[in-house]
Amino acid sequence: MFSHSLVELSRLLDQRSISSVELTELFLSRCQDHNQELNCFITLSPRTALEHAKAADKLINNKQHGPLTGIPFAHKDIFCTEGTRTSCGSKMLDNFQPPYDATVVKKLNQAGMVCLGKANMDEFAMGSSTETSFYGPTRNPWDLTKVPGGSSGGSASAVAARLIPAATGTDTGGSIRQPAALCGITGLKPTYGTVSRFGMIAFASSLDQGGPMTQTAEDAAMMMNAMAGFDINDSTSLERETTDYTANLNDSMDGIKIGLPKQYFSDDVDAGTIEKINDAIKQFEKGGAKIVDIELPKTALSIPSYYVVAPAEASSNLSRFDGVRFGYRAEDPKDLLDLYCRSRSEGFGNEVKRRIMIGTYVLSAGYYDAYYLKAQKVRRMIRDDFQQAFKEVDVIMGPTTSAPAFGLNELVDDPVQMYLADIFTVSVNLAGLPAISVPAGFSSGLPVGLQIIGDYFSEPRLLNLAHRFQQDTDWHKQIPEGFTE
Ligand code: GLN
User: Fold this and answer.
1) Of 214, 276, 329, 441, whose CB is crowded by the most CB atoms within 10 A?
2) Hey, which residues are catalytic here?
3) Alpha-carbon distance 460 to 245, whole Å?
4) Pocket of ligand 1, candidates 151, 168, 400, 416: which has the most ligand atoms within 8 Å of its Cβ, to mutate?
5) Mutate to test the pocket of ligand 1, among 77, 124, 128, 133 (most ligand atoms within 8 A of CB)
6) pLDDT tens digits, 202-225
7) Is pLDDT at 287 greater than 90 in this prediction?
8) pTM score, two decimals?
């Protein structure tokens, strides 16, 4: 039962073969049994979960339910949950109980989903390994000595180990897709503006986007139906007609043009990863897709431009944590300046401080033109690269990451190497495009993710291709040893 997809659980609930309370108890006990070894959760909330499950059962019994009613899941701890601690992985917010729900939280509540708790993450979503969390690193269920990726590593690890059937994540530079790839699950980063950012603690506002992390593409489509939509509270939310993300899952891929960027298949990429990606591409060819070799010549500029733009926005967003209004406050400040300085020095971890320093530096009067403005121009060039490519092809495919999961502590002292782990993901955020990562096999015993990138609003197509791929493969069904019972 615990290994079922959302679609399967939905059917069982609808047939009343199982109740939401029973499912909630099952997943809660898995979470409680395994959290110590994986450290996927910062907070588990069994009491509210069971209350919500009871309410869901009532709806189901009265036939007032939707497809997601009664299904347990978890939120990344970046989404504000009214009355439940929302730490964002930081000491700064260790005591923060939001007085309101994020829009995504509200929407999934309305859909009747049952939140079991808040998933571990890199502090303020800054990181690629979940090692910057104040609450300690999450582990990869495929190998406990490896990282699960980040920043949504708690969500990915928990879904991979089947402690929960689905979770939310956020992706500023890859934080849904990269951990999904390293843990062997499916993760969708929607087009910028599709999922509301209201109540999602801001890291880099022009890049941040929430999305689903699930076992299958079909499940991701189901979650998107509940998560997406215009929100008056988010000024960058897009007003568009409602999309049914499940409607096109079975469309034919005959004649679809898949672009393979030369830059994503270089010698720097792990050979086992390339092999699996090539196998996956053959599957799509069998389905009638056409392969086109393309170029994304600005790929190498994406890391330097992202690591100027993202810290710049972060330094501004994080100025609100001043020890006055919410979060951590230093003890016995001698004056106001001391309160600010010590609250921030004691409340933030090293990676967050590094980003704030880079950000304030590149935005400072003397360096703004040389760094921030330049990075914005490069950002536009990266977007143009993709627009050029989408004149020729329908989607772009390649590996989500250049190698499978790295070891815990392996890169913590080398931030530049850590930043380079994001080479294939950050350009998608800089351009605002949608992309999905799907399990495509294993290299050295660790999961490999295939990334499919599409033009704006092509989520139905991405989900369709991912779904068709999952009909022909069973990589997404693999469960790490030690979590199969
Ligand atoms: N790893 C990237 C960073 O550290 C992306 C993080 C994210 O997408 N939240 O900024």
Assistant:
1) 214
2) 76, 151, 175
3) 5
4) 151
5) 128
6) 999 999 999 999 999 999 999 999
7) yes
8) 0.98
